[in-house]
UniProtKB/TrEMBL annotation:
It holds the Pfam family DinB. The lineage of its organism: Bacteria, Pseudomonadati, Bacteroidota, Flavobacteriia, Flavobacteriales. It comes from Flavobacterium jumunjinense. Belongs to the DinB family. This is DinB family protein. Keywords: Metal-binding.
Length: 162
């Protein structure tokens, strides 16, 4: 089957829009946290939302950059700069959003089915790597929703995408 001419359920432009919609919602979740709680609050030994956000920042752009450049750099959260304020996190989030747009557009449609060893740990077609980025963000954002509710803060509606 020729995947470049086969009917599609979603094209790469729609996938990027979908991903960026999730990123916009995660940004709203970051904004909803009080500064202190963003860095300190956790439940049941889980990481703070700032640490979860650091993980998301250390996966999306470095992973996408690795896919585009076909480099299998090991995953490392320590490679990301230390951020100490929520404003810095939001700025870094916005910068990462723009980088995702730039790198994503460099992936040819025929490359989505090529196998890539993400961070040297996850061998799968590139489309699966990208879906992992999205799924991981949704998972951690869910933790953020639990934290916000535990703090008595109404989280953003989950369907918010702008």
């Amino acid at each position: 089957m020729n995947t470049t001419t086969a009917p599609q359920v979603i094209n790469s432009e729609q996938l990027l829009k979908h991903w960026q919609g999730h990123r916009a919602l995660t940004r709203h979740v970051i904004e909803a946290f009080p500064e202190k709680d963003f860095f300190e609050f956790s439940i049941g030994g889980m990481r703070s939302f700032s640490k979860l956000t650091s993980e998301l920042l250390s996966i999306a752009v470095p992973g996408l950059k690795g896919i585009v450049n076909r480099t299998e750099e090991p995953y490392s959260e320590e490679k990301t700069e230390t951020l100490t304020t929520k404003v810095q996190y939001l700025q870094k989030w916005d910068e990462a959003t723009e980088e995702i747009n730039q790198y994503f557009k460099q992936i040819a449609i025929e490359d989505f089915e090529i196998s890539f060893n993400l961070f040297g740990q996850y061998e799968a077609p590139i489309i699966q790597n990208i879906l992992y980025f999205i799924d991981n963000e949704i998972h951690h954002r869910g933790q953020g929703y639990v934290y916000l509710r535990a703090l008595g803060i109404e989280p953003p509606f989950f369907w918010t995408r702008e």
